[in-house]
Amino acid sequence: MDAHAGSGAGHVSETDDATPTSKAHRHALIFICLTILIDTIGFGIVIPVLPNLLMSVGKIDLAEATRTGGWLLVVYAGLQFVCGPLLGNLSDRFGRRPVLLLSLLAFGIDYFLMALAPSLAWLFVGRAIAGIAGAVYAPAGAYIADISTPEKRAGSFGMMGAMFGLGFIIGPALGGIIAQFGDRAPFFAASAIALLNLVYGYFVLPESLPKEQRRPFSLARANPLGTFVALARYPAVIALAAAMFLWQLAHQVYPATWSFFAKARFDWSPAAIGLSLAFTGATMVLVQFFVTKPAVKRFGENRAAMIGVTSGVLGFVINAVATEGWVVYVAMTVGALQGLTYASMQGLMSRQVPANAQGELQGGVASVASLSSIIGPYVMSQALASYSDANAPVYFPGAAFVLAAGLGTACLVVLATQLRPRVAANSA
What we know:
Elements: H1 23-45, H2 50-58, H3 62-94, H4 96-115, H5 120-133, H6 137-147, H7 150-178, H8 185-204, H9 229-232, H10 235-251, H11 253-266, H12 270-290, H13 292-299, H14 301-321, H15 325-334, H16 341-350, H17 358-386, H18 399-427
């Protein structure tokens, strides 16, 4: 987040009457959390129906639909990467309220247009709009910083994180259920939810950034590539950032290919796909809430990260060779500890930089995550499509999970090289 984004932390304009204990504050916080939840639900709600919709709209087979689905995710993630800093800086110039409300309006219109899409080109336009509107985390986070006192800020950000995880449970499950009314029904539902939240926000959301604390818009400061400079300034972080990139690239196998993999391997319905994704999200959220803290305390951040990656790799391998639907639930359970990975890696990286550079580091970490979200869907979808095509030399829908397991193993190697010097230093 831009250093100036939180310059109004703990303050709002007097006319807004949004103090940390006011009813207006509570409604605003509820609205921000709902916005994050709706953004995440909107992403997940369409996943179960995507294979059927792409095949129907594009008149293409499942392998080609897989490739197209990968490109849709690339467009979505690419525009989020570009527009995240842009929306954050626009909110510094014009205030948080207009940016947040316009994003929700764009969401509502986008999903409605996608529901009526007569061609694949319309779906790409829709995903592009969703990528732009979905880059709402920067202004949402800035709003939280504006209205929260320092001692309550962490709790407020924790609520945002919880909404993000909850959205990945609700979205796919809801999409699978609503798909019983047609492959386009989840898009209509996502549009209605976004527009209802827009109406709610219009009446309850005060502006949190007073005019005197706003700054001129600068395109140079809204450049997402500039955040990579943060990592280059700290050589000790580079190897850990590489490990994080490899892991996040491997983990893209789920959003990029799961619905297509489940249909190709098991011929699952949208409801079954949604249920499986909800189960995966639930296991990871449980690990993050109840296992991460004691695991890091017991094993340390590096070993906890390695346990998480190892768990994820085992899950990838089981999914790759699964021939019965129930086996993937075993894989999800075995792989649940992968929820340890991201938090442990972030902890390791944060130890390598001074306190006054933590924000800069997080900007670099966010850019690494965004880059993996652009590259991963293309790589994983192409791997699945190449081995599920009718003309494939070997029919093997698990190919993308083999690739994910390889990337996860490479991540383990990098982490192990980071652990060895620490062990040697401790022994000495």
